[in-house]
Write a structure and sequence with these properties.
CATH class of the largest domain in chain A: Alpha Beta
Number of domains of chain A: 2
Shape of chain A: globular
Radius of gyration of chain A: 20 Å
Oligomer: homotetramer
CATH superfamily of the largest domain in chain A: Formyl transferase, N-terminal domain
Largest sheet of chain A: 7 strands, mixed
Distance between the termini of chain A: 27 Å
Number of strands of chain A: 13
Strand content of chain A: 25-35%
Structural class of chain A: alpha/beta
CATH architecture of the largest domain in chain A: 3-Layer(aba) Sandwich
Number of helices of chain A: 7
Order of helices and strands of chain A: EHEEHEEHEEHEHEHEEHEE
């Protein structure tokens, strides 16, 4: 039976990588359907994403790539097309990004298994038809209970075998334990065009600064607040006539589509980490 | 003879401003062709721009508005349509913004009198056909001669009765004496999307940060470097594959069109200062 | 009691309109908070939108403007800020625009009274939490029953005293009786960047044509399919790698935000008809 | 000596193309530095662009690829990085695109050999400093002399061994003989967002239609006026307040950057023909 696979990896740049990888694929009956690659002269890293089809058994493929990975010191990931990543969504009280992700998943636009929604607010605060069919975890938090609440989230992540955590306007600052454990698999949407306006109330900061465009940024979470490799950003024009509430209103849309696109690309293995930056093979 | 005028002003918000201003225009035979206004609840300021036509003598009009301005404590400007503002362009060695401004002026797109071009580089470094017809002032500068060179520029500004100074990629940092003297009439183009990447080499900063969009910002110059009320900004998408040189290349276009638009609006009295921000009546 | 009003109108351009209108407002104790106007030299029409506050009784105001309207042959509309327009939403089976409008209304972003949702598909096909609280009218249609079904919709519009009809991906072609009755108060979202790709399956048309950007257009409905005064349009880049399904997916977002913006502006009386075009006072 | 090459080709999709092509490169000592490919299920075509470095002799490489091309029925092109394509620019009286292309070439942004500029207007109408250093051919045309003038242009193209013809606002309609001879190597900039507003005065058409965005489209020239595979398009918002002259003014910038980007990509072999469409490997 023919299966579609996507192999994505990074390794130290050296001659012959493409030859070896395509060779390994061909030797296992693979027909390459798509290739993207990039070499960063600064970091000296090589990045590649290959879509291929083959009838070769999964275990044999994995063994072959594992062998190659050791030779090239690769950081790699192999997934079959029909595998759906297991995702946990975190949200506070603004539900526009959550509702948007759930909607797109229902439509089939985002191909993921939403294993649960975690919120520090009660479910009654949120609103999306799809929520009823998804396990909901109400985990309120106070400064005193922060560590315990994070421990519970990590427990859920492990218990549910979560591949990806999406902070869909989850407004709690995460500890470095939490972020370190989720390196490369936790995406946040920050409601500003980073690196402008980090931290709280970015729309109010933007309004006070007098910028003529606002934006939103989806990035991988790291230990530093609102830093972390940027995956995607978008902007929209604003004017002197826009109040902070107008910026919040306009910003909701930008946040939704920026986060959705970042999640779409991550699920498709189109985003690779390159130090504090990302390589995005979006077509 | 009918003359078109544009009156632009700001004052403390209070009832009846529009009544008084339109009343004054009507009393002097004016027919209003365009109105824009804005009230800022935060600063408590009122802003207005009125285009009108009248056969009333200029001096009579000015006396009428001067009277009103005293009553309302206005900060105001009245110009006839055919008046061309006198402009001084400053440039260092990258001439893409200079060439663009000269080109648009030749086409009639920018309606201004370019009284001179000042550069700290020799004219042979620059390249635009229109330069030959414009007085060129080669004012080289070193850390030791900085104050003297600025004094010479200020002297030129006064001697040439300059209305507007445009820093078209003029890379010297200006002293606070200089900037204070030119408050509200000196426009700079900074090659980043402010407030991100102030200072030197913003494209290299952007590249190192891993942003997915770069931009340029036109703003009024103040004593703080790369701060000052933003007039206009625009962005363009970039990718991991763009080198710093690619960002510089893409950025040139953004800088050109952002600076040109800011100058166009300023000449048309469409930009009013509102503290650290601007009100832009662009349509 | 102070009430905020918005007066919007168009009339034949002539001297003194602004004087007369602002005069009428002042005479009735009004303080003007916002003004936009535009004169079209081609159509010879004058357009104005004024926001003002007054304690004057509504009926007195209306009488005053009615009088002025007769004098200037105005086409006018006066609404108090707290008046919510009564809106009927029509949808077929794709519910992304419907869901988006309902969501924004719930958030308070769109200030309208949604009196009902009409669909030619059964409610079970659609999905939005807010639907349960809104009267739903299932009006299936076949070529044979088309006229009768339209008659029923018109009946609902009259019975519910509807101000605005929004075709939120309602895919039935409307008869000229229907469209003529709703001139200036029926907004449609067409999923292409008009005038490109009118008619059916515009994303497939766009894909076949090889355009590098797709878009959506919100417009007032007229007797001609997908024509009618354009209110707002937006686009997004696409590539050779996008399949028609990718265009549909990307297009959903553009359709949502374009339709929402057009509705927002129409509700705020920011859109005035100018023959086959619109004047949009969006700030 | 190591040379960088770019191989671009299309052929009927079949298994093993990537294997054979990368194999051929490796066998000739090549190290692949960049790969893009795309398969179109509709046309059944396979497209690929490979950047590689090798010390292998050019003739040996060409023989190897010629052999492969015959096997796979490829339509292919191999160029060394330092080869500069020979380009002929055609312009009528609006010189903004011409000036922009010449400027970018001088800066090194566009890496091409401009062998000549042809215009149906006298050189004195045009304005760009770089023109003086380039052979200029004044070829006026009337309806009676059209065929003869085109013959002269074709003669120049052959005599100068031209690789690419760029119509930089060259407003003469070309005969099918002309366009057929230049299939895939003649780029035109049309000042509208195709397929909207083909033909003459597109800005005036757009203004009359009431669109809220205008654009420009760069495309390969075919026998059908303003049709032909689109390479790149971009847009900009316009409003009711924009006169046709405003649209022309705003449009100039869009035309410049759209044409420049299309030429940049074509020179880099990033654009491949796919029937009436293009595949663009722009990163």
């Amino acid at each position: 039976m023919t299966t579609s696979y996507t192999l994505s990896f990074s390794c130290h740049d050296q001659p012959g990588i493409i030859a070896q990888v395509s060779g390994a694929i061909f030797e296992h009956g693979g027909n390459i359907r798509g290739v993207n690659q990039f070499q960063d002269p600064q970091s000296g890293l090589f990045f590649m994403r290959v879509e291929f089809v083959t009838t070769c058994a999964r275990l044999v493929l994995e063994a072959a790539f594992a062998h190659l990975a050791r030779q090239l010191s690769m950081n790699w990931q192999l997934r079959a097309r029909e595998e759906r990543q297991r995702v946990l969504l975190l949200v506070s009280k603004f539900d526009h990004c959550l509702a948007d992700l759930l909607y797109r998943t229902r439509l089939g636009e985002l191909d993921m298994e939403i294993c649960g929604v975690v919120s520090n607010h009660h479910k009654s605060v949120l609103n999306a038809p799809e929520l009823d069919a998804i396990p909901f975890y109400y985990l309120p938090v106070t400064p005193a209970t922060k560590a315990a609440q994070e421990t519970e989230i990590i427990r859920l992540i492990n218990e549910l075998a979560i591949d990806l955590v999406v902070l869909a306007r989850y407004m709690q600052i995460l500890s470095s334990n939490f972020t370190a454990a989720l390196s490369g698999r936790c995406i946040n949407i920050h409601h500003s065009f980073l690196p402008s306006f980090k931290g709280a109330k970015p729309y109010h900061q933007a309004h006070a600064y007098g910028v003529k465009m606002i934006g939103a940024t989806a990035h991988y979470v790291t230990t530093d607040l609102d830093e972390g490799p940027i995956i995607y950003q978008d902007v929209e024009a604003v004017s002197h006539a826009d109040t902070p509430d107008d910026l919040v209103r306009k910003g909701r849309n930008i946040e939704q589509r920026v986060l959705a696109r970042a999640v779409l690309w991550h699920l498709a293995q189109r985003v690779l980490m390159n130090g504090n930056k990302t390589v995005v093979f979006w077509s």
